[in-house]
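Deadline looming. Please check this record:
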Amino acid sequence: MANRRSSLAPPGKSWWREGTVVAVAFALCLLGGSLRVDDTVTPPPVPAYLLAAVSSGLLLARHRAPVATVLATTVCGMLVAPMGLLSTPLMVVPVVISAYSLAIRAERRVVLVVPLTSAALLVVLPPFVETDFSWADASRLVTVAASPVVAAVVGRSTRHRRAYLAVMEERARRAEESRDEEARRRVAGERLRIARELHDLVAHQITLANAQAAVAAHLFDTRPEQTRTSLDELVKTTRHALDELRATVGLLRQPDDTSALTDPAPGLSQVSALLKTFRRAGLEVSMREDGAASQLPPAADLTAYRVIQEALTNVTKHAATGSAEVHLGWNRDHVTVTVTDDGGGSRTPPERPPGYGLIGMRERATAVGGTLTAGARPQGGFLVSAHLPLPAAENTARGADGATNG
């Protein structure tokens, strides 16, 4: 990662940073060369300048060849005592910097071996070269030997911290992508739901309007009063269609748009009014209900309503019959919504392309955890049956059983 960042950095900035590192190392080496055993400071001799220049210049290769740079700067550090200079941590600053760079870039095994080797080499010559070697000199050499080891530990810690930050950044990026994907999935689901609503209400209302207009055209010359009644029903149907279309399209408005309608979604409580619209369009619809009715969840309630609406719309459009039956069968854990007719004829006439009515009903039933079956009946006609779960009723029954057992 460090190499990648260095390679991606602007050339001017990279050279400025490298020049600063070399200059600081050169200055510290000169400062170390001016120190004496008696803690006095004198102008650095020529060997100090030469050693500082060479060892500091070697740092320019620490990114491309970190191991070779550590070994080369260590050799320079070994020449400190033979050249008459005092071995101090300041004289081995280039070794410290190169050991730090090595720990950031190299593998663990290399980091363990190379700095320890460098530390041993830095202290091997001074006891034999320096005169009057004392315990104070020994403690100073221990500090010199520990310098590259400590630098390697700090470098390794920096590498781990960078790796940790990289992992955190990757996790944050993936979390952001997951949120974007979830947002796209929710938008797609909402678009599908609105498409279903538009299909159901438009297909239903337009089918009723078409049937009422056909009745009015048929009775126009022979029964004017019935024609007027059919036209009045046609006006009500189209007005209702516009209201439902406005309410559904209002879902696409901005959240701060208060002009959108907020009428509740239809459910089984409005089935009676739905059946009246079909009866006024000329379809004789009967309804039968078995079992004790329960409160459906909002999504299942809307699904039951839409299944009845779409199934009766298909009867009006495709079935060669004037009657249909709606049956609600309430059970302990589910409700069965069945719509049947005894007509014949194709469900998709040749002059019309196949629709999405059955597909939409099946998708709605599956979305609430139910199932839907549709097909021709053996005795004639067509059947649509949806089985929708009743989680609230099931939980209530379980709670009652638990209270009774208790």
